[in-house]
Amino acid sequence: MTANPLDSITVDSVFPQVFSLIVAAGKGSRFGADIPKQYTPVLGKTIVEQSVSALAASDYINQVLLVIAKDDEIAQDLDFMVSVTFVEGGAERWQSVKSGVEAIFAAGAKDEDLILIHDAARPCVLAKHIDLVIETAMQEPYGAILGVPVADTLKRVGVEGNIEATVDRSSLWQAQTPQVFRAAKLRQVLDYVAQQGLMITDEASAFEAMGYTIKIVPGNNQNIKLTYAEDLTLIESILSSR
Q1: 16: cis peptide before it, omega within 30°?
Q2: Nearest-angstrom CA–CA distance, 175 and 194
Q3: Could you read off the pLDDT of 35-76 as tens digits, one per residue?
């Protein structure tokens, strides 16, 4: 991989500025394909190109930092809707996010700026929800994320596959992306994750571990993540309908 072209990340006079970061360094093993799932084609583009296009529909976003694997030979040949800068990621998601965050600071981000993190495999997010979570984060000390209330009945199951209890879902939400955080606080909580050896599945979890309150913003159920092969048909249907 060539040197990171940090000069292509521009900083303007708007405060706070919103920096957008897409995590595309994973292999997507549950998807079961020969290539990372973010490079799966759908409607003439890869999933990650569709995800970048979704972010570009927001007036707050005119450039994207794409965190990719060291051995990635695909991403830099793709055609994106906005200016894209590439940074090498790590073995774990939080390591990839941390690489992106450090690159953003190296480009001149300020402590109170916002960093938006989005999954490469989540191409169906709507611009109005991107705008809403950004605008909410602007009013919060730490940040905000998109999510939806859990609709299904939830069961707690034991190791032998037997149902132990029905879980009260009244206060449960399913986390989505984008997740938007104050830059300095995000950097701090990622350092904490590294120091404590925590295993997290999203960045909001790191804030929770340090006792920082994050606001959740209602999105919708169409903002699904490509995880399993059967998700692809639904994603194609959603994108085709727009």
Answers
A1: yes
A2: 22
A3: 889 999 999 999 999 999 999 999 999 999 999 999 998 999
Would you state the structure tokens that stand for residue 142, as one six-digit string?
């730490």
pTM score, whole prediction: 0.90
Q: Where are the alpha helices (DSSP H) in the chain?
A: 47-56, 93-106, 127-138, 183-196, 203-209, 231-240
Closest by CA to 143, choosing from 173, 105, 182, 110, is 182
Integer Cα distance of 71 and 201 in angstroms: 23
9 and 20 Cβ atoms separated by less than 8 Å: no
Query: What share of the chain in percent tops pLDDT 70?
Result: 91
Write the burial class of residue 93 (CB in 10 Å: 0-12 exposed, 13-18 middle, 19+ buried): buried
Question: Which residue matches tokens 């249907």?
Answer: 237
Question: What's the average model confidence in pLDDT over 93-115?
Answer: 95
Instruction: Indicate the residue type of 183.
Output: A
> Mean pLDDT across the stretch 91-104?
94
